[in-house]
Sequence to fold (210 residues):
Amino acid sequence: MRYDLDQVPEAIAYKLLAATVIPRPIAWVVTQGAQGVNGAPYSFFNVMGSAPPTVALGLMAAPGRGFKDTALNILETGEFVVNLVPERLVAAMNLTSADAPRGVDELALAGLAVLPSAHVVPPRIADSPVAFECRALSSVVTGPCQTVVIGRVLAVHIDDAYLKNPERAHVDTDALDLVARSFGAEYIRTHDRFDLPRPTWAGLKAEGKV
Ligand SMILES: Cc1cc2nc3c(=O)[nH]c(=O)nc-3n(C[C@H](O)[C@H](O)[C@H](O)COP(=O)(O)O)c2cc1C
Fold:
């Protein structure tokens, strides 16, 4: 089967992409604009580089409402905080995805406390084990009220409880217990992992494989 995506309804394109590109990490994004603090989850999210450290977010249009609040706030202020989501916070995260009217502070709605950021105006979610303070490097409007934001990560906050060795930045991945998004209402845990050492050209030569 081949789907030419300019020939199919948008919902089909979304399904094909979102059900195959899994698992997707979840950026629980806090922004602050003229209407106040805003929080919402975004799983079109990943790390894009480390020099400088960058992340990208994909913000689709809000049906019938134009840009989503997160997109509007980032386009206006250039600032956002990405909080990561452990399983214990999934219900609160999900609540903040509701299509609340503009100006509603979804974090307050979900009973979440916030802490001030060091470099940007939007706060971070106090209970989240990891937060990235970000400033937009670039935003590309990729469609009607749809945008991709590339942000430079200015600071990483990580709860000491999740660092095995702070000097060497060894993170206790199991203790973090982060969740990722699958498709629709399905989520994926991050405990089922396996090792696969990367080959080097010298190693392959030594083994007579090249
Ligand atoms: C786990 C999860 C991941 C989501 N990922 C995205 C995403 O990547 N892009 C997007 O446009 N909406 C995504 N949504 C939907 C938004 O969270 C939702 O539209 C929300 O109301 C937007 O809020 P805002 O207008 O306050 O930014 C996701 C929802 C959930 C529950």
The chain has a mean pLDDT of 97.
